[in-house]
Specification:
single chain; alpha/beta; Udp-n-acetylmuramoylalanyl-d-glutamate--2,6- Diaminopimelate Ligase, Chain: A, domain 1; UDP-N-acetylmuramoyl-L-alanine:D-glutamate ligase; 2 domains; six-stranded mixed sheet; 6 helices; 13 strands
Length: 200
Amino acid sequence: MEALTDILIGIDHHVLKGDTGLEVANLVFDSRNVQKNDAFVAVKGTHLDGHTFIQQAIEKGARAIILEEAPQELDDQVGYVQVDDSANALGIMAHNFYHQPSHQLSLVGVTGTNGKTTTAYLLYNLFTNLAYQAGLISTINTKYNGKQIDASLTTPDPVTINATLSDMVNHNVSHVFMEVSSHALDQDRVAGLNFTGGIF
């Protein structure tokens, strides 16, 4: 459980209702995955608007709602926090929720039209062969500490990225090489992250 006030650090926000001192179990942006005591971030996507699923999130147990546009009626049992950009806020909140893992290792982003995967893999293998505890987040998979997790997106969502980086920190990973797609940049999936370096 993390205090909402702590995961809102660095974000301009306005409390519409409730206490930001309340604690939340998880940070969720897909209402289908909401569980009791979660914070639901209503993000406006390309095809769907998370604001239309706020009531569903509350019914599933969301304790706090982070949004851009307030509904006409506010539930007395829920905290509401208004932000200018939910997608950007989600990235920063995820980084805070997982105790800013990118500050505890060297994170290098690899972007550009072609060659991202090859470059990220070469760097990961180079640092691994030099006896560093290295991590990789790529189009194909995520690799570290003997783990290999298949990827579904070039760059994962902010919550997944920060959860992964946090686990890497727990496994003493020192250097991480991550593919960063143009879509990820446009959708603020890497908002809040501290990059040691970037390759284009």
